[in-house]
Amino acid sequence: LIVLDLMLPGKDGIQVFKEVRKDPRTRTTPVIMLTAKAQTADRIKGLEEGADDYVTKPFSPKELVLRVKAVLKRSHMVNAGESGRLTSGDFMLDKENLKLFLAGEQVDLTVTEFKLLALLMERTGHPQDRDDLLREVWGYSDQIYTRTLDTHVKRLREKLGRHADAIRTVRGVGYEFRAEGSGSGGDGDADADVDAEASAES
Question: Which is it for strands 53-56 and 31-35: parallel, antiparallel or unpaired?
Answer without folding.
Answer: parallel
